[in-house]
């Protein structure tokens, strides 16, 4: 494994500290489907409706990301322990100062249309994603590159920090040193794009051309899905074991689970809460329980006058008995969250979130001090068909019992409608939100959710939270010379976020997945996605 030159040891040590997120069950290691990417058979997998067309830089939510993971391979990959691996397109990513980076690519990589994956493929893709005129959801991830501010201001059309040196080499100048850069560029927003994308970006979203282990065999049809086939000229180490696969869109998670019971869909990566207890006995070794990096939040629209006061947000958080909801709704498979940084990465501190403690008396005091109007019901928002109904209603019942508030459930929008409403500041009350890291580091729980460069539509800060002190501490952490210094600064930023409470952390998550006897070798990765290339089909 190659890592950047000195003084970038932070990349290796920070990622090495990430815990192994292992799956239980999932079949033996010698499934009968194939060997060496030359196996046969096809399988099906459940997804919800993606929010956006299938373009890596515009896909920052879970459903579309599942498809992107099959169609694309980025610069680097990650081991099961969370370390950077040069298993992708990059041969090396090197820097002497953590600000000026040279990225050297491996030769022989091609897109699914046969055109080469080269330095220009990355530079053009990054420039497109970063340009606010293109309104790409992943644009904020490019914000550390020099010239991003000029793009935002409209005084430039390309990132000044990018330069193509030759077909297999390009350089990246960051606005400030950032030792974790080699880890960040494994995220989807940094994937390459072929020339065909720029000919017709709109059409590309339904007819994607990637460089991953699977290639599109049909166009993506909203409400239905997309069929993929193995890319025989794939240059990576993780060639697809199956001949092909199909992503099937379901409007309701429960229907997908029923279809898995009947053998009509092979992999359901997240099953409904009300079947957790019965699923293990029903599916046996085909039931997978995985500790993942996700934190489930109750987000707050800080732009709404009712929720502008931090004391209101603190009160709501303290009025929720997280343990009771986990036991009643999730069969004890969720752990009450007490931090804004997940335990799966270095930087987590037990009890870092003071206002995550269940204390109804203190909550009522805070609400009274804030002058909150209890006579008006509170809207509770969540996306439909994904198994959130019961636990959101449980949150509402606790707010009623512990704070004397009535509530209205707002759960009629599917995922593809839900996030755009949030982008438009359309949430009129607390909203369900979940976050898994984009790369294994504490910083991935902070910058994308709690800084202004991550405001929608180019980011995921749906609470529209902005605290200049937080921004400065995160920036200082990014530029720290050692892992210890960086984590200390990130934790100081977390302490301020915990006081402001733009989102209330509710649960650290284990997810439960099932698959049919048709497939083996189903593993859930660090990002709570099945590793599609490893799935084998039983003949």
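Q: What amino acid sequence fits the structure above?
A:
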């Amino acid at each position: 494994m190659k890592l950047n030159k000195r003084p970038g040891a932070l990349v290796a040590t920070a990622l090495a500290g990430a815990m192994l997120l292992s799956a239980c069950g999932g079949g033996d290691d010698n499934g009968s489907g194939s060997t060496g990417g030359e196996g046969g058979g096809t399988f099906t997998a459940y997804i919800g409706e993606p929010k956006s067309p299938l373009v890596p830089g515009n896909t920052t939510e879970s459903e579309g990301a599942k498809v992107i993971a099959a169609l694309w391979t980025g610069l680097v990959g990650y081991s099961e322990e969370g370390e950077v691996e040069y298993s992708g397109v990059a041969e090396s990513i090197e820097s002497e100062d953590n600000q000026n980076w040279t990225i050297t690519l491996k030769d022989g990589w091609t897109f699914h249309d046969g055109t080469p994956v080269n330095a220009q493929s990355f530079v053009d893709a990054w420039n497109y994603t970063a340009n606010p005129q293109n309104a790409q959801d992943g644009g904020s991830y490019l914000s550390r590159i020099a010239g991003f501010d000029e793009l935002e201001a409209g005084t430039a059309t390309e990132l000044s920090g990018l330069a193509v040196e030759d077909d297999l080499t390009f350089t990246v100048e960051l606005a400030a040193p950032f030792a974790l850069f080699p880890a960040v560029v494994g995220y989807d927003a940094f994937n390459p794009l072929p020339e065909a994308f720029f000919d017709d970006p709109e059409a590309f979203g339904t007819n994607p051309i990637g460089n991953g282990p699977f290639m599109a065999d049909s166009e993506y049809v909203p409400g239905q899905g997309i069929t993929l086939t193995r890319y025989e000229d794939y240059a990576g180490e993780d060639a697809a074991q199956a001949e092909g696969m199909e992503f099937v869109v379901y409007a309701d998670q429960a229907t997908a689970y029923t279809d898995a019971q009947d053998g009509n869909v092979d992999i359901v990566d997240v099953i409904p809460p009300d079947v957790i207890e019965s699923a293990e006995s029903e599916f046996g070794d085909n039931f997978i329980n995985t500790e993942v990096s996700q934190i489930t939040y109750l987000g707050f629209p800080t732009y709404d006058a009712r929720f502008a006061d931090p004391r209101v947000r603190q009160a709501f958080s303290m009025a929720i008995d997280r343990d009771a909801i986990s036991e009643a709704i999730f069969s004890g498979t969720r752990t009450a969250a007490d931090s804004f940084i997940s335990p799966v990465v270095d930087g987590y501190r037990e009890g870092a979130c003071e206002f995550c403690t269940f204390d109804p008396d203190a909550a009522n005091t805070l609400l009274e001090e804030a002058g909150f109007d209890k006579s008006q019901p509170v809207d509770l928002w969540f996306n439909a068909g994904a198994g959130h109904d019961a636990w959101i209603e449980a949150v509402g019942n606790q707010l009623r019992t512990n704070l004397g508030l009535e509530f209205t459930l707002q759960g009629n929008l599917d995922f593809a409608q839900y996030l755009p409403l949030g982008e438009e500041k359309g949430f009129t009350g607390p909203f369900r939100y979940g976050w898994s890291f984009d790369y294994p580091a504490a910083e991935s729980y902070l910058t994308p959710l709690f800084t202004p460069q991550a405001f929608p539509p180019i980011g995921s800060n749906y609470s529209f939270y902005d605290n200049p002190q937080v921004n400065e501490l995160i920036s200082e952490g990014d530029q720290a010379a050692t892992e210890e210094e960086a984590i200390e600064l990130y934790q100081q930023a977390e302490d301020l976020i915990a006081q402001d409470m733009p989102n209330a952390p509710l649960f650290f998550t284990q997810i439960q997945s099932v698959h049919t006897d048709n497939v083996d070798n189903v593993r859930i990765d660090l990002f709570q996605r099945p590793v599609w290339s490893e799935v084998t089909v039983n003949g």
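Q: And what stands out in the fold?
A: The first helix runs from residue 9 to 16.
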